[in-house]
Amino acid sequence: MENKLSGKVVLVTGASKGIGQGLAVGLAAAGASIAVNYKTDDAGAGITCDRIHRSGGNAEAFQADIGSKTEFERMIDDVGTQFGSLDVLVNNAARTRFAPFYEITEEDFDDVVNTNLRGPFFGSACAAQKMSETGGGCIINISSIAAKMMIPYHSAYTMAKGGLEALTRQLAYELAPSIRVNAIAPTATSTDRNKGYDPDYEEKWARITPAGRVAQVEDYVGPCVFLASDDAGLVTGQILYVDGGWTLQALTPDMSTSDFSKDRHRD
After folding, report:
1. In this structure, what CATH number is given to the domain that contains residue 64?
2. Model-level pTM?
3. Residue 266: what pLDDT?
């Protein structure tokens, strides 16, 4: 994948940790200059940039709450000023706030929808305008297996990710031919956040995944590089499930003992 994205500028939202950090580092390894977005975790964004710099890549951190239209737009302007262009937007930032349906509050709902759907909606509009001025580009949305097969305690999150997939198809139609829009839908993934829900998280999800394991963050890099590259020049409006076959049978482990309390109060 080396140099597949040489000369391209990529903005990855929520890139201070987890999947976003892995995508930022992997896209940089493919030759892209990376705008590393974060909301509050400036230390994590610094780690992402440092990892990229130590590998000889180019990266800069940009603070913004992408759930705010004005902050997202301001960040896109700043990225354009810093790097001279914007070729790829990866809408990765997400909020979960998992809980039984009856316990979801308005605060939970607004937080999840603003980050997972409102942000990508208005951010993509601003980014697409910038891309159109320089000949085009692509947008990659990070969805979830939860948008296809139902998982307990995921009501607000599933709704928002389902909307994100519908938005992916709609924008692919409206923005063609100059801008391609696709989505990647991750499966259960080995991250600190997920392991914090349940110490047996990886073992439980591995047992019900045909591939026999959960995903590592690095599993999403290759698909993301492909969709961002000229190799995917005729690929648009697609939802790529990177799930080890999970959606073939869509079993779920017992989640009744999972601790979602910290999740609902994350920064």
Report:
1. 3.40.50.720
2. 0.95
3. 56
